[in-house]
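Researcher: Let's try something more involved. This one mixes different molecule types, so please make sure each is placed in the same coordinate frame as the others.
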Amino acid sequence: MPTPLKPGAMDDDRYDRSKRVPWLDIESISMARVLMVGAGAIGNEVAKDLVLSGFRKITIVDMDHVVGSNLNRCLFFTEDHVNRRAYKSETIAEGLTRLSHEAEPLAVTRRIEDTDRSVFNDHEIVLGCLDNIAARLHVNSHSYAAGKAYIDGGMDGLVGKVMVSFPPSGACLQCGMNKSHAKVAALRFSCTGKDVVFHEPRLAAEITTTSVISAVMVREALKIVSGKTDLLLSNAFYYDGQRNVSEEIEVPLDPGCPVHSRRD
Amino acid sequence: MRKPFNLAFCPVLAVVFLVLRIKVKNAETGAAVEMELENENTIDEVIESAATFWSKDMGAYVLRKGKKVLRGGSSLSDAGIRAEDVLELIPDPEGG
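Model: All components are placed in one shared frame. Result:
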């Protein structure tokens, strides 16, 4: 027998307003396992949007500590975390459980390159919230090999981009890269003969662009989990907050892309 | 009757005709620059020349024609670039 209607019941249901979006599949969203790689500015916003949208099982991979310059754009980080040199992944995981008692975040304080590759098979969707090309290439190729959707977000100042790779169809992140990406990736690493040093660039970053890019990423994840792949971003989404323009630009599949040839 | 003009008899003009003049726009500033290229030049070369011309910070860029990103290793002829085309250089943001 259906549950009897009670006045005001809809205001008690956490997801009542979400359920009014006809295609959102709240049950599938609550069951989906999401891998979030990177827990910086985009990671904070993506994690918040995921949990408020009804995702529960979220694995957060990041090896970094919270620093003071993160505080202009990271919801879950405070000065106390800076003083304690708290891990970003653990701090976000704690914050998510405060947002919703249903959230089941798992923090992994490790580089994604040092994480067992089975982690890609254990999740339905991979969200890339990374800050360098080398890590993006790693996550892109492993997600593709595991046949998992990879949603990548990036930003620089007021400019941002989201790209969705949905194997086996269409282009992957690497298909849209060129020599300038290889040059930047090589520059980030300098070999001193003994060690390889990673040079982290200090890029412009602020919260409004972070929010827009993260929101688009999570919305695409919602479409995938809800089975609305016909609405999915099939190309790259570019956003320029300075000019207030956004558009979808086609990234053609590169027949010479090593990611595709490896899988095919 | 006048004979049709044959390029083969005029190597200087033939070279002139193989040069491709296009315009590249800077998506960040709206500025534009004209470039003289050959069909064999690659998209990577156009990106590097334009980024250097505008003294861009070391970062990743893509070149687009209309609503399509052009593949870096492609030659201009393979990418379907024609004289008078307008391409746009857009930053590919790396930060997270």
